[in-house]
Amino acid sequence: MRIVFFGTPTYAEHILNYLIQQKANIVAIVTRPDKPKGRSRKMQSPPVKVLAEQQLPGIPIYQPVKASTPEFAETLKALNADLFVVVAYGEIIKQFLLDVPSSGCINVHFSLLPKWRGAAPMQHALMAGDLETGVSIIEMVLAMDAGDILGEEKISIPPEMTCGELAQKLCTMAGPLLTKVIQSIEDKTIEPKNQDPAGVTMAPKIATADAKIDWEKSAQEVHNQVRALNPAPGAWCEVLVGDQTKRLKILRTQANPGVVNKYLKEAWYESCGTESIQILEIQLEGKRAMTTKEFIAGVHKLEIVK
Question: Is this model's pTM higher than 0.90 or not?
Answer without folding.
Answer: yes
